[in-house]
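Support reply, case 0932

Customer input (verbatim):
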Amino acid sequence: MKECITAVEEAFKEYSGGTARMPTRVSIPVPDDHGWMGVMPAYLSVARSLTTKIVTVYPTNEAERRMPSVLATVVLNDVKSGRAEAILEGTYITAMRTGAVSGVATKFLARPDANVVGIFGAGVQARKQVEAVREVRNIHNVLVYDTIPKRAQDFVAELSNQSDLEPLVASTPGDVVRRSDIIVTASTSTHPVFSGRDMREGTHVNAVGSFTPTSREVDDETVSSCKIVVDSLDAALAEAGDLIIPLKEGVIRREDILAELGEIITGKKSGRTSELEKTLFKSVGLGIQDAAVARLVFEKAKSLGVGTHFDFEK
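Our regenerated output:
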């Protein structure tokens, strides 16, 4: 995770500096089967990574098929020739890079003394979110809330094996919010998962679960009371219901979105400026994150001599 956080941070520097290319994600709803597919190409000049990710989200997979709700494949192309260099299993890469971007955002936006994390959602992504936040802050306590209590209990049981952590299943959303320095929303909910009225001063929120214009995990109170940073302004205004809905309703203005994360990283704009202000990082997920982590995975695979070799031309 530490390597992924570094790679993703460098990708955002490229994006802010103009050496990355990334069109807005192409989204295809599959309403007959309650699914969604996204196609995400990206190019990082400095990292020498050219990728396309195909990702699907089928919320009913876990219950009906015992499969992950998010599935992905990444194709990595050679930058010089354009030839396909690798096909990578992208579901784990997606989890790692989404965790990593929260790690980067937490590094630049959360209070330095933040040590309690509250997690909404107890799936695969929640695990990577905790892993990433722990890389950049000295976390002592983790509070977990999931609408399926058994999932939250299983997650806490896993975390209990780490002797330096005190994980706990939270009984209510308010219990999570009132006790947390850092809040992470990594759910599949289409409606706000907590009340912003319960947030303490100085709280940082990473909202990473929702990614469509009509779904949201954070409410008007949260959005209106926080300094807002996004992964990409264009992507957020096209896909982030957490911001699109309050913008349409006049709760916030376009000017209330402070910056893109890359602008904070490179010092073009200031992030947290006081211990008391509340901050919100909204991410819908970007192709540059996949490109950064896919290149990292490929280079490590080559150095370790792992993977299956094949030739498309035969």
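We compared this against your earlier run and they match. Two observations from our side: The first strand starts at residue 20 and ends at 21. Residues 34 and 58 are 6 Å apart (CA to CA). Please reopen the case if you see a mismatch on your end.
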